[in-house]
Design brief:
It comes from Erythrobacter crassostreae. Keywords: Membrane, Transmembrane, Transmembrane helix. This is DUF1761 domain-containing protein. The chain has 132 residues and is mainly α. The chain has one domain. Helix content is 84%, strand content 0%. The chain is built from 6 helices and no strands. 21% of the residues are buried.
């Protein structure tokens, strides 16, 4: 298994991106918007292609790091999922939590965003299993 493989990385990032679309666009759209303090106009303003493009690029970066770790360690399937979810629980969610404390974001806002990271990373790990 190569340290970097384009297709698993792109597929893993795409899985995370789809989770985000469902999470913020369907499941928690109004709750997240209210917790973030954004009006309908705020949500619709902005350069959406740029926002989505940068989001996907960040997710590609996350996928590259996780794939590299998986490729270097050649873990069993259950360990791939532990690494994926563990990265969300042990690194991503606490990092966002620290920022949210200082930004005085609500617990609801944090839980919605933390849930996205957890489910997105689980989806990424699941997709990576298809390439092992």
């Amino acid at each position: 298994m190569a340290d970097f493989a384009l297709w698993p990385v792109l597929a893993g990032a795409a899985a995370f991106f789809v989770v985000g679309g469902l999470w913020y666009g369907v499941i928690f759209s109004k709750a997240w918007q209210k917790a973030a303090g954004l009006s309908d106009e705020d949500v619709q303003s902005g350069n959406m292609p740029l926002l989505f493009g940068l989001t996907f690029l960040f997710e590609v970066l996350i996928a590259m790091v996780l794939w590299h770790l998986i490729a270097r360690t050649n873990p069993a399937a259950h360990v791939v999922m532990m690494m994926s979810v563990g990265f969300a629980v042990g690194v991503m969610i606490p990092a966002v939590g620290i920022h949210y404390l200082y930004l005085r974001k609500s617990l609801t806002h944090f839980l919605i965003d933390a849930g996205h990271m957890l489910v997105g990373m689980a989806a990424m790990g699941g997709v990576f299993l298809l390439f092992l």
